[in-house]
Design goal:
Length: 192
Amino acid sequence: MAHHLTFVKKFVQKPFQTGAVLPSSVLLAKMMVKDVGIEKMKAVVEIGPGTGAITPTILSSIPDSAEFVAVEIDPDLYTIFQQRFPDVKSYNACASTISDIMRKENISELDAVFSGLPWASFPEELQTKLLDAICDVLPPNGLFATFAYIQGTWLPAGQRFKKVLRKRFSKVEKSPVVWRNIPPAFIYKCFI
Ligand SMILES: C[S@@+](CC[C@H](N)C(=O)[O-])C[C@H]1O[C@@H](n2cnc3c(N)ncnc32)[C@H](O)[C@@H]1O
């Protein structure tokens, strides 16, 4: 419960970076890993894990031998994340540094980037910078999965994000909406 309060506080302090009032639901986390072949993945990164709402679902879905690294920009949310997942490799850094982090961790190829970033509240330059970094580290057929709040898809930045995904990725799938998430959201599953 304490980490829910920190999340709310973060939203008030940094609404565009935090992008949500509450952590995601387990139902949304399950939708993120559904039918993407996660059980065979060898290396995955989660960007914007916040307090770790989606992390347990990813961890319980990947093979025990898979590499997993989390990258969270906010120091306070990162501290909570580290306390909750002391055995998980994690970095307090911007997701744009993903290739440096892979080098440090000796990960030569990633299967997937799972994202909790609030894309619809980002300006165009930041969307581009982060998508460049993600596309740089994904191999052909690599997966980029990210959630989107349905109200965000009506905003100009949300519309722009959708268009950019279709330009950058060869396949973009949209999951059904998870109505019991607050706010309701769906997943973009994009393949390079
Ligand atoms: C909408 S919250 C999602 C948190 C969590 N994944 C969840 O689903 O509850 C967005 C998270 O992305 C983090 N974030 C925003 N910009 C980031 C960036 N450039 N690099 C890494 N994390 C970032 C925020 O600090 C926040 O923890």
